[in-house]
Amino acid sequence: MPRRRSVLTTLLIVLPWTILLTIWHQNPATRYLTILRKETYENSSAKSLQFLINVTKIKEEQHTACTHQQEVTPAQQTARRYVYSRPPGWSRWLPTIYVITPTYTRPVQKAELTRLANTFLHVPNLHWIVVEDLPRRTNLVDSLLERSGLNFTHLNVESPKSVRIGLAKDSSHTPRGTLQRNLGLRWLRENLILSDSLEGVVYFADDDNTYSLELFEEMRSTQKVSVWPVAFVGGLRYEAPKVNTAGKVVGWKTVFDPNRPFAIDMAGFAINVRLVLKRPWANFQLSGVKGGYQETSLLKELVTIAELEPKAANCTKVLVWHTRTEKPTLVNEGRQGFTDLKVEV
Amino acid sequence: MKMKMKMKLKNVFMLYFLVSICGLMYALTQLGQPCDCTLHSRQSSDLVHSRDRTISRLQGELKRLQARGNPEGPPKPALPTIYTVTPTYTRLVQKAELTRLSQTLLHVPSLHWVVVEDSPVKTSLVSELLKRSGLPYTHLCTQTPKDFKLQEGDPNWLKPRGVEQRNLALQWLRENRGPSDEGVVYFADDDNTYSLRLFEEMRFTKRVSVWPVGLVGGVRFERPLVERGKVTGFYTAWKPNRPFPMDMAGFAVSLPLLLANPAARFHLSAQRGNLESSLLQALVSIEELEPRASNCTKVLVWHTRTEKPKMKQEDALILQGLGSDPSVEV
Questions:
Q1: Nearest 10 degrees: CA dihedral of B149, B154, B159, B161?
Q2: For a disulfide at A152, which of A128, A226, B59, B74, Cβ 3.0-4.6 Å?
Q3: Which of A2, A115, A316 faces B104 most closely, judged by CB atoms?
Q4: Spatial distance between the Cα atoms of B148 and B142, rounded to a whole number of angstroms
């Protein structure tokens, strides 16, 4: 009897500990503790990113970079008296959308960038990379970006004269905006650290297109490269990727050269930023590119057609329009100019 | 025997303490290590991620709905409402134009968008767009009489456009707003570009306020000439002898002034370039104009025009009976 009692007491003493040890791993408290630890790790990586972004680059021969964050100095805040909308607060969890916009000086430039900024002010976690086609950044674009309230990076790189004037005699000319977009990609590669926790999407947005707000939410979940229809390209109402019943892209619904590897417009795809960083050699080809193959020259380095992710309800909705703005006829300016050049238009 | 039992008990207790201490040490070391059940932590962090995304989306929706305002009474502070009158007509780029215009207007507080279609019935494209825009709006429609409608191939200046539509909007305002309502009426075409600052410049208009317009009249910008805070003339290269040689986007009329002049309207018979004058002549004289935009020295609105998209391939496909899916709205 005493033996049994001692065995019983031993059992009673040991049992709670065994139970504790076995259920330790399923205890939600421990999961919470591990999540917290993960958060702090992510916080530290985000902080280092902020630090990198705040570092101004040294002036190089062809381009300079100037980056700004949401936190503004009091002087800048007073200059924004007339801005009524800030972008929605920066969320720690939403993947950032890096929008690369090449732009060049012409009469409608300020108008185009203004209405583009008005659109972007609605999109949370958007970082606008504006690349000017000039040897030096202009005050016009600089002050527009500062006053907008957006997160932005202002870069510039000059295209060779033949490209800017549009002398397309040679079929292997560099299309507009190539150098600028490549500079945007280069900036991303030099300023972001590749890690598993880095989340973001790269989108090439020309300054004369029209974007719906829904488009940005569709592209945010891109894992590799996502695609969707674009209106008013290729001489059609819209061009779209061909998606089969299994939800995979199998071809392209275009009339103009549908046999291109990627028969899609610049506004019709977005790339996960990790993929951009993983393949530092992937850029838009500068020369020897046939008309309509510019997008292919980049995408073929990044992804195969089978890996494309169709968005916009399996590519059945149009969320971006390839609008073009008419060149204003300034006939009445005359040779000496009618209007005061000091007034910015 | 008792001694043996005591010894055994002692052993048992020793064993117990040993085991429990080992267990506690093990538990402590577990605390210091990352959990090897990453599946669970990833699942829960994914849950947190997606919840946060939903929250952001809902916050955005909330913001948009709040921007609608209370139709019963003005939100605090009570800003005069800007009634933006936009005539529109069905063409390929219509949805794109209205989309990006709505994205600009959504930033402006106390704004009421009056959209008037040049159509016998309200189209579902515009109705749906307005519903989803998040703006307080009024949707009207009226068709321009056949004689005054531009034909295919006509230059865009041949006949005045949007006249009946703007007049219908004025009529709606006269029927639905009273002398106690504060506000200002602005005629905003759907292809122009507007900066956000412009709307604040026009909000507190007593009679008619004016400002420069970019990229119009064949010059970089047209503007009123201002001396000592008063408008004395207009700086424009095209037909400067008009009573009011400015563009539709260059002025705003206060609502009380419109209501006090029930006969004031745009005239279909107006000559080219005189459409604005046909309304303003009945409302105000040049001396009474209020200059804005830093005494009319800043350009806050641009008369941009959108190219007609080339449909060469689409037309070819239609001839073959293989046109694009019409159920996909563009």
A1: 60
A2: A128
A3: A115
A4: 13
Tell me if A333 and B218 make a contact (CB, 8 A cut-off).
Answer: yes
Task: Please give the single-letter amino acid code of residue A162.
Answer: S
- Partner B, chain A 141-200, Cβ-Cβ below 8 Å: none
Question: Does the distance separating the beta carbons of A30 and B30 come in below 8 Å?
Answer: yes
Instruction: Nearest chain B residue to A333 by CA: give it.
Output: B219
Whether A125 contacts B59, CB under 8 Å: no
Residue of A314, A295, A177 lying closest to A242 (CA atoms): A314
Query: How far is Cα of residue A75 from the mean position of the Cα atoms in its chain?
Result: 29
Q: Is A38 helix (H, G, I), strand (E, B) or coil?
A: helix
Coil, strand or helix at A120: helix
pLDDT tens digits for range A225-260: 999 999 999 999 999 999 999 999 999 999 989 999
Is A119 at the interface with chain B, CB within 8 A? yes
Partner B contacted by A51 (CB < 8 A): no
The tens-digit pLDDT sequence of chain A (345 residues) is 678 888 887 787 777 777 777 766 555 444 444 443 443 333 333 333 333 333 323 233 233 334 433 333 333 332 223 334 578 888 888 999 999 999 999 999 999 999 999 999 999 999 999 999 999 999 999 999 999 999 999 999 998 876 655 444 444 456 789 999 999 999 999 999 999 889 999 999 999 999 999 999 999 999 999 999 999 999 999 999 999 999 999 999 999 899 999 999 999 999 999 999 999 999 999 888 888 899 999 999 999 999 999 999 999 999 999 999 999 988 888 887 888 888 888
Taking the C-alpha atoms of residue A38 and residue A173, their distance in angstroms, rounded to an integer, is 49
Cα Rg of chain B (Å, integer):
33
Number of Cβ atoms within 10 Å of the Cβ of A38: 18
pLDDT tens-digit map of A20-70: 777 665 554 444 444 434 433 333 333 333 333 333 232 332 333 344 333
Residue in A closest to B298 by C-alpha = A343
Asked whether the beta carbons of residue B220 and residue A321 sit closer than 8 angstroms, the reply is: no
Q: Is A122 on the interface with B (CB under 8 A)?
A: yes
Tokens of A300: 């073929």
Dihedral angle sign, alpha carbons of residues A150, A155, A161, A163: negative
Q: Alpha helices, DSSP H only, in chain B? A: 2-32, 38-68, 94-105, 124-133, 163-176, 196-202, 255-260, 275-280, 293-296, 312-319
* Cβ count within 10 A of residue A166: 9
ipTM: 0.77
pTM, 2 dp: 0.76
What is the DSSP secondary-structure string of B268-303? TTPPTT-HHHHHHTTT--GGG-EE-HHHHTS--EE-
Which of A114, A145, A207, A320 to probe the B interface (max B CBs under 10 A)? A114
Using the Cβ of A314 and the Cβ atoms of chain B, whether some distance falls under 8 Å is answered with no
- DSSP letters, B27-76, are HHHHHHSPPS-HHHHHHHHHHHHHHHHHHHHHHHHHHHHHHH--SSSPPS
Pick among B157, B215, B303 to test the A interface (most A CBs inside 10 A): B215
Q: Which residues pair with B213 in a beta bridge?
A: B222
